[in-house]
Amino acid sequence: MIKIVTDSTCDLPPAWLNRYQLTIVPVNIQFGLETFREGQTIGPETFYRRIKEEGVLPTTSQPSVGEFSQIYQRLAADGSEILSIHLTSKLSGTWQSAAMAIRQLPDTVKVSLIDSLTSSVGLGLMVREAAHLADSGLAAAEIATRLEARRPDIHVFIMLKDLRYARMSGRIGRLRELLASLLNVKPIVGVDEGALIPLERARSRQKGFERMVAMAAERVGQAPVHVGLAHALARNEAEELLALIQSRLNCQESFIADLALSLAVHFGPGTVGFATYPAE
């Protein structure tokens, strides 16, 4: 039997999380001296309210090595193999914590660790495929090889409503180069080899959506794809974007999910993005 572990940046609809029986390791969210476990001890309402009231962003930190070790040993107690799939190591130490835990485990605990080189719905789509492959009877090592081969074919497009959160965030990396030159525009961001990169800028939400879908079409053509959308307090906009995607791409299965709080802290409310994933 194969059991799948991921982290709380994996954005999937709640019903899918339950269907695939995933073990979710929470990222830590810290408001001052208070530490919360994403998805367990803090939700969106409290998260956004506190940022608005306090005027500062919380910080985030990866799960501990000890937490990963405990989870792996518990899941492997019945002889199961484990697939552990996590957000890009270019933006978080989560993958490194998992790798350190694995090195400390006894030989009887079998874990295949995968750096998704993405996050949010891109990670969610990868986890979804892992679950389907596990159900088909593939071994964990075979699944890991397939998923790693898929990584270059995951395309991510994110549009920020504004730059307030990006200005306050200390982990935007290369996007800092945009901050001085962008005013009253909506930056479109992508992911390249696990790192955030600026793609384009749009003067309106609609023009931004059009350009995001056009860039996706340039990359995937009419090849069948699965599509996941994530949003931060922008469900209506996500539905509008999904309708546009479905009219332009050969979209097979699709879903809309709330953007993980530990990611929203760097992008802000109003953010909408999507990922395409090969469907064959």
Detailed description of the structure:
This protein has about 280 residues and is an alpha/beta fold. The protein has two domains: about 110 residues, Rossmann fold (3-Layer(aba) Sandwich); about 120 residues, Hypothetical Protein Tm841, Chain: A,domain 3. About 40% of the residues lie in helices and about 25% in strands. It is built from eleven helices and 13 strands. The chain has a six-stranded mixed sheet, with helices on both faces. It has a four-stranded parallel sheet with strand order 2-1-6-7, sandwiched between helices. Strands 4-3-5 form a three-stranded antiparallel sheet, with helices on one face. Helix 10 links the parallel strand 11 and strand 12. Helix 3 crosses helix 4. The longest helix is centred in the middle third of the chain and has 16 residues. It is globular, with a radius of gyration of 18 Å. The chain starts with a strand and ends with a strand. The mean pLDDT is about 90.
What key attributes describe this structure?
single chain, 280 residues, alpha/beta, Rossmann fold, Hypothetical Protein Tm841, Chain: A,domain 3, 2 domains, six-stranded mixed beta sheet, four-stranded parallel beta sheet, 26% strand, globular
